[in-house]
Write a structure and sequence with these properties.
Elements lengths: L6 E2 L8 H21 L33 E9 L1 H4 L5 E2 H12 L3 E6 L15 H15 L4 E5 L9 H15 L6 H7 L8 E12 L2 E6 L1 E2 L2 E5 L3 E5 L5 H4 L6 E8 L2 E6 L2 E6 H15 L17 H22 L13 H5 L4 H4 L1 H8 L6 E3 L17 H5 L1
Parallel strand pairs: 1-8, 4-5, 5-6
Antiparallel strand pairs: 2-3, 2-11, 4-9, 6-7, 6-14, 9-10, 10-11, 12-13
Length: about 400
């Protein structure tokens, strides 16, 4: 057996017309691949529905703990001639991301396995970074209180060194490495990036066979929640493979909440979706460690205020410093060049020099959140050689 890193994912259960559309997408995909692969498996025929009553699900209590919420949903896809034999390439997932980011009024929360989106780049074509940049610039110009939280895996999920290098290289180029990165473009525009946008990872610790150990939590979600009013969730990563429609086939659901409730954002009363607000609060509570024990009475309902945004960042940074001192974790902002790597990793680690003190310090960590190391190896170029498959593919 090969041990697997801890895993974090988010998903949806949907009923009604949007579920029917998801089924029809699968049928279309299944049938065209049967043709291409000359498989003996049977074709699937979609069921015909005469009215909406047939779509009603009465046995939801068998697989849901709580009563389902009412929402408006729409399936969106990345799909094209090669993957589904369509006449045109469909990029409705990308269109949804762009429209939702541009229309966000208060905050954006993203969990994704990738963040590969570079403006003005000859390789990376999707405009997610440009849209985030323009939304932040607009917030800065108008004096708006606007926040973006992005949670990513601390390392790409692969045991292939070339894949890890290539993925990490382009993620860092997207965030802070080079003049076309999101952070650098904001700084050139006179904007402090962390006033509006922050990147985070997830990490945990435990005692294994009498020794303190730590492990990153691999974020596999493909989720964006906007203003606690709408969301997109599905299979699409934030990269060209998932968003341009000409490569991987993807399916997501865009959801608007119907049931609303009152909430305060930065001291202002706003209407938020009942479903999305509860979903986002649950995620923040898990990330900050307040789901079961909330000794400091932290209110996660307002993601916009300076108080909460700074608290979120402070918890992440405090946790990061503790993990670096005790375990010498990688990746880290302490290592910006290869020649700094060994100096950092060779330093005595508190888990070895004083395990009892290390364990006491680890009790001061809160939740799972840590800083995303946006400046890790930012003075180095580690893109795999173009002679490798991974170097060519990017």
């Amino acid at each position: 057996m090969v041990p697997r890193t801890p895993w974090h994912d988010e998903a949806l259960v949907v009923f009604g017309e949007v579920a029917r559309d998801a089924a029809r997408h699968f049928i279309q995909w299944w049938n065209i691949h049967k043709v291409f692969s000359f498989s003996n498996r049977l074709f699937i025929l979609p069921k015909t529905y005469d009215d909406k009553e047939e779509l009603t699900v009465h046995n939801w209590k068998e697989f849901l703990e709580d009563h389902p919420c009412q929402i408006n949903g729409q399936c969106v896809r990345s799909i094209g001639p090669w993957s589904a034999s369509t006449k045109t390439t469909e990029t409705s997932i990308l269109n949804a991301y762009i429209q939702m980011i541009d229309g966000a009024e208060h905050f954006i929360f993203i969990e994704n396995e990738f963040f590969v989106t570079v403006a003005n780049d000859s390789f990376i074509q999707n405009p997610v970074s440009e849209t985030l940049y323009q939304r932040i610039v607009r917030a800065h110009r108008l004096g708006e209180k606007f926040r973006i939280y992005i949670v990513l895996p601390l390392l790409p999920g692969s045991d292939n060194v070339n894949i890890v290098q290539a993925s990490l290289y382009f993620i860092m180029r997207s965030i802070a490495k080079g003049d076309n990165s999101l952070f650098k473009r904001l700084e050139i525009a006179g904007i402090q990036p962390n006033d509006y946008i922050s990147f985070f990872g997830l990490r945990q610790y435990d005692i294994l066979m009498g020794r303190l150990v730590t492990e990153t939590i691999f974020v596999h979600s493909k989720l964006m929640i906007v203003d606690d009013q709408m969301a997109i969730c599905g299979s699409a990563n934030i990269n060209d493979r998932s968003l341009l429609g000409e490569r991987d086939s993807e399916l997501c659901v865009v959801i608007n909440d119907i049931e609303e409730e009152q909430c305060l954002f930065n001291g202002r009363s706003v209407r938020v979706g009942k479903f999305f607000s509860s979903w986002r609060r649950r995620l923040f509570s898990m990330i900050l460690g307040t789901m079961r024990h909330n000794e400091n009475d932290i209110d996660v309902s307002d993601p916009v205020s300076d108080q909460f945004y700074n608290y979120f960042r402070e918890v992440a940074h405090k946790n990061t410093l503790i993990y670096e001192e005790i375990f010498g974790v990688l990746p880290t902002n302490c290592v910006r060049r290869f020649d700094q790597m060994y100096n950092y990793t060779d330093k005595p680690k508190l888990k070895d020099t004083d395990p009892n003190q290390a364990h006491e310090k680890l009790k001061n960590t809160q939740g799972l959140v840590v800083d995303y190391p946006v400046y890790f190896l930012d003075e180095e170029s580690y893109l795999p050689s173009l002679r490798t498959r991974e170097g060519i593919s990017y």
